[in-house]
Design a protein that fits this description.
Blueprint lengths: L12 H14 L5 H10 L5 E11 L5 E13 L4 E5 L2 E6 L2 E7 L2 E8 L2 E16 L3 E13 L4 E11 L3 E11 L4 E12 L2
Length: 192
């Protein structure tokens, strides 16, 4: 699912369990680093990648998006990855890219080699439009379909542009159609 080869750790449960017990038994009480290491050695993941960088191209070789994360941890039980500080950049022909950032995220394979990215905590979606300038949308959670170039949220969102600030419950973004829709209880201010 993830295509990088940096800092891969493949836990061997039998030997690592003994090592974790040894570390936990020898570490002085209150040693957070040793406790964290022991917990990591018991984790149900099969690999992690520090400094993940992934770029997706279409069949013609055109760059569609880049997905980066400071860390990606893969869990084989349901083939998902937990991302720290995910950063998605959607490229567009003759337009500024759209960027998505968050504190954390979960990446799933949705089928047909497509992905679903669930972003959490301090989610920001932004771009610069030719006619209106910078656009920033902020929320606490968002579901993203990178290949379809779509995103949505059921949470409260704030949309800020150069001359307006709108608040809503929920939003939908469809980049192929150039539509960003605020869904419910839309309120805002506009400075002429």
């Amino acid at each position: 699912m993830l295509t990088s080869a940096l800092n891969i750790c493949l836990p061997v449960r039998r030997n690592l369990s003994l090592l974790a017990l040894a570390i936990a038994g020898c570490a002085p009480a209150g040693n957070d680093e040793a406790s964290a290491l022991a917990a990591n050695l018991r984790a149900p993941y099969d690999y992690y990648i520090n400094g993940m960088q992934s770029t997706r191209f279409d069949a013609g070789g055109v760059r569609l998006y880049a997905l980066n994360a400071s860390r990606a941890t893969h869990f084989p039980s349901d083939d998902h990855a937990e991302l720290s500080n995910p950063d998605l950049l959607w490229y567009q022909v003759d337009q500024e890219p759209w960027g998505l950032t968050a504190n954390s995220g979960t990446l799933h394979i949705a089928g047909d080699n497509t992905h679903e990215l669930l972003l959490r905590d301090n989610v920001e979606l932004q771009t610069t439009l030719a006619k209106t300038g910078r656009v920033l949308l902020e929320t606490v959670s968002m579901t993203v379909l990178p290949e379809a170039r779509q995103a949505n949220s059921d949470a409260a969102v704030t949309l800020t542009t150069v001359d307006s600030r709108l608040r809503s419950i929920g939003m939908q973004l469809n980049l192929p159609d150039n539509h960003l829709t605020l869904l419910n209880q839309v309120r805002g201010t506009h400075a002429p």
